[in-house]
TrEMBL record:
<keyword id="KW-0396">Initiation factor</keyword>
<dbReference type="Pfam" id="PF01652">
    <property type="entry name" value="IF4E"/>
</dbReference>
<dbReference type="GO" id="GO:0016281">
    <property type="term" value="C:eukaryotic translation initiation factor 4F complex"/>
</dbReference>
<protein>
    <submittedName>
        <fullName>Translation initiation factor</fullName>
    </submittedName>
</protein>
<keyword id="KW-0694">RNA-binding</keyword>
<comment type="similarity">
    <text>Belongs to the eukaryotic initiation factor 4E family.</text>
</comment>
<dbReference type="InterPro" id="IPR023398">
    <property type="entry name" value="TIF_eIF4e-like"/>
</dbReference>
<dbReference type="InterPro" id="IPR001040">
    <property type="entry name" value="TIF_eIF_4E"/>
</dbReference>
<dbReference type="GO" id="GO:0000340">
    <property type="term" value="F:RNA 7-methylguanosine cap binding"/>
</dbReference>
<keyword id="KW-0648">Protein biosynthesis</keyword>
<dbReference type="GO" id="GO:0003743">
    <property type="term" value="F:translation initiation factor activity"/>
</dbReference>
């Protein structure tokens, strides 16, 4: 259970999600994540104007682990350094009863 966890999310322009999703799945099953025990899932949300990939983690208390998950994701997906990752804890999601759409950008920082 990842009640103490959260998720990194990446907004994607239409047309790139298929390749990135495949690369992410192969990286996850191919042991490319140093903190693989902390990753408990991933999801691809297909939307009308954009797609969103999210990587769920078990525990948000260790910012070094969260940053390694983000950095590994950036590396295995070959994303440029300017790509914005947004982090949101599951607890925060439950409290605001909101969706990803309400989440402000964090400029690649764990908050």
């Amino acid at each position: 259970m990842n009640v103490k966890g959260g998720k990194w999310s990446i907004r994607l322009r239409k047309g790139v999600a298929d390749r990135l999703w495949e690369d992410l799945i192969l990286a996850l099953i191919g042991d490319q994540f140093e903190d693989e025990d902390e990753v408990c899932g991933c999801v691809l949300s297909v939307r009308i104007q954009e797609d969103i990939i999210s990587i769920w983690n078990k525990d948000e208390s260790n910012s070094q682990v969260l940053n390694r998950i983000r950095d590994t994701t950036r590396r295995v997906l070959n994303l440029p350094p300017s790509t914005t990752f947004e982090y949101k804890s599951h607890n925060e999601s439950l409290q605001d009863k909101g969706s990803f759409r309400k989440l402000p950008a964090t400029n690649d920082r764990v908050v």
